[in-house]
Specification:
By secondary structure, the chain is mostly helical. It is built from 29 helices and twelve strands. Helix 13 crosses helix 14, helix 16 packs across helix 18 and helix 25 crosses helix 28.
Length: about 600
């Protein structure tokens, strides 16, 4: 672990490494060395410490390859000479700066958990792009955000799902630098890597049938043991394998897991995580039908694409042991891992459909802004150390870091998202919000003609009245639909209207009807001059000898059918303008009301 951390330093830094090795236990320095070998090394520490130092220096070409003592010593401390050499001498990789990836499986919609993973990777890459630009570093600087589609599950993967995921990523503003690459198009690479492991004896052919595997699992269960493969074909000779092939039998390729070794990663979020390889049996990397297994594809792809960091959900943490073993066997440097906590529902159960919308596409359809959803997802497990909650994309890029991601599970709070979305709507320019609403109303079939002259008039007035009250864009349709309705009967039947009725509502109603049909004054105001509506109401009050609630509440009930709502004159104006361009089943025109 210490060697991995120091690999990129120049030779002068290894004197410091030597001191670190002397301060640390050998199990921490070399987690892949067996317990027995660590004990042996401890008895000969005067040999072992210089050996580790020489191994490190040799990676940088600072030690002669003809050193016989180094060559012989490396065999003394490895359970398998070829495997030890592979693990301590990773293949050189071109320095490409930070490289991260988002690797969705196209088996459904983009869940908010996957969207958060994509967001964190995107922010991390963008942050390092900006740093590289500021320092004007070339060549090895910068960063890349790679999109890889993990579609090896042929039964569940669909083109429609992939298209939906890509569409949702674009809507969120998470634009990738490379890809999308598809695992289904990389089969030759996986086969070549599997052959490489077979040749190096890190993998072997397994001719076990499904029935035999089931029997092994049942036997292990009866004995109270984990369902680990028994290793039946682990030591088969070439002749035995050829006999099975001659019979026309197919085989799977199993990875040969080293026994009694510790594998440790330094997770950016969870710290040091260690597994004992004895908890893992020899696992399949290529199925008998020739298709690769998920964990093998992931390790091969991350290595081939030279990922420097793998940021993903903690549900992938158990997969890491297999992937690191594959990395080591192929002589490749593992990336830096960061496993983010899960996103839970308010009842701390797994977030699912029963809790409402869970996918990015659903939130988009419900009228949430992409900026608000991005802001909210970023805060599900991360903060910048302050009380700040509203972050623009540029703010997030500048302040994001893996170190500020928390270990504890995040709770998805729909009310908090609603509040945040309402704040973003309030911050929109009126013209921008009006355009969004026009597009939405046309899409939903609520607005008949986006280009009609009255459309811009209606939308401008609607935004003026309702912008501060909107939680989602879709709510705008509900609000306008409410204005178009005329629930007069139900309002008059309510207990709250009793006092208003007894206070002379019908006198006010008669005055309004006469003003509309006989004098025509109210009709003119409603259609062409809503600004003069208040003056008309005051004049009407003087004629009837009414004022305050005795005047305004009956007026509101008669014209809108409700006891509360926006300004009456503005409502009447919107109802008249909407008659020719709004399509609503609840629409009652002003003349019908009168």
């Amino acid at each position: 672990r210490e060697r991995e951390r120091e690999r990129e330093r120049d030779a002068g830094g290894f004197f410091e490494l030597h001191e670190k090795l002397e301060r640390n236990s050998f199990k921490n320095v070399t987690p892949w060395v067996s317990k027995a070998q660590r004990q042996q090394a401890a008895l000969a520490s005067d040999v072992f410490l210089p050996l580790v130092l020489r191994t490190q220096l040799s990676h940088h070409g600072n030690l002669s390859s003809s050193s016989s003592s180094s060559s012989s010593s490396s065999k003394c401390y490895s359970s398998s000479p070829s495997q030890a050499e592979t693990q301590t001498a990773p293949t050189e990789q071109k320095e490409l700066g930070v490289r991260v990836r988002f690797a969705p499986s196209p088996t459904g919609n983009l869940h908010v958990g996957g969207a958060r993973t994509a967001l964190y990777n995107y922010l991390y890459a963008e942050k390092f792009k900006n740093l590289a630009a500021e320092t004007s570093s070339g060549g090895g600087g910068g960063a890349s955000f790679v999109l890889r589609v993990e579609d090896t599950d042929k039964a569940r993967s669909t083109k429609e799902s992939e298209d939906a995921v890509l569409r949702d990523l674009k809507w969120l503003g998470l634009h990738w630098d490379e890809g999308p690459f598809r695992q289904s198009e990389r089969g030759d690479l996986y086969k070549a890597r599997a052959e490489e492991l077979l040749e190096k004896n890190f993998a072997y052919k397994c001719f076990c049938t499904d029935e035999e595997i089931t029997e092994m699992k049942e036997k292990a269960a009866d004995e109270g043991k984990p369902p680990i493969y028994s290793g039946k074909w682990a030591h088969a000779t070439e002749e035995e394998c050829n006999e099975e092939l001659a019979k026309g039998k197919t085989y799977a390729v199993r990875f040969r897991v080293p026994k009694d070794e510790l594998v440790t990663i330094d997770d950016s979020i969870r710290g040091e995580v260690t597994w004992n390889t004895n908890t893992l049996g020899d696992f399949i990397i290529m199925r008998s039908d020739g298709s690769p297994v998920y964990n093998f594809c992931v390790a091969v792809d991350d290595a081939d694409m030279q990922m420097t960091h793998v940021v993903r959900a903690e549900e992938h943490l158990p997969n890491t042991l297999r992937q690191v073993l594959i990395y080591n066997a192929l002589g490749l440097k593992p990336p830096k891992f960061a496993h983010c906590s899960l996103i839970l529902a308010p009842d701390r159960s797994k977030l699912s459909k029963r809790h409402g919308a869970t996918s990015v596409g659903e939130f988009k359809e419900e009228g949430y802004l992409s900026e608000a959803l991005m802001n909210y997802l970023a805060l599900l497990g991360w903060n910048d150390g302050t009380e700040q909650e509203m972050f623009s994309k540029d703010d997030l890029i500048e302040k994001f870091s893996l170190e500020r991601i928390t270990k504890s599970a995040a709770i998805f709070d729909k009310q908090k998202l609603n509040w945040m979305n309402s704040q973003y709507i309030r911050q929109l320019e009126t013209d921008a919000l009006a355009k969004m609403l026009v597009d939405l109303w046309v899409e939903k079939g609520f607005l008949a003609d986006a280009e009609a002259a009255d459309t811009s008039v209606i939308m401008g007035k609607f935004v003026e009245i309702f912008q501060e009250a909107l939680i989602t864009l879709n709510q705008s349709i509900d609000e306008f639909d409410t204005l178009l309705d005329y629930p007069l009967s139900s309002t008059l039947e309510s207990k709250k209207a009793k006092k208003c009725i007894e206070g002379g509502l019908f006198d006010v109603a008669k005055y309004i009807v006469d003003s509309y049909f006989i004098s025509g004054e109210l009709k003119e105001l409603a259609e062409n001059n809503p600004e003069a509506f208040k003056d008309w109401m005051k004049a009407a009050g003087k004629e009837m000898g009414k004022k305050g609630k005795d005047l305004f509440l009956p007026m509101r009930i008669c014209m809108t059918g409700c006891m509360q709502g926006p300004d009456v004159g503005e409502q009447v104006f919107l109802v008249n303008k909407a008659e020719s361009i709004i399509k609503s089943d609840t629409f009652v025109t002003f003349e019908e009301r009168m």
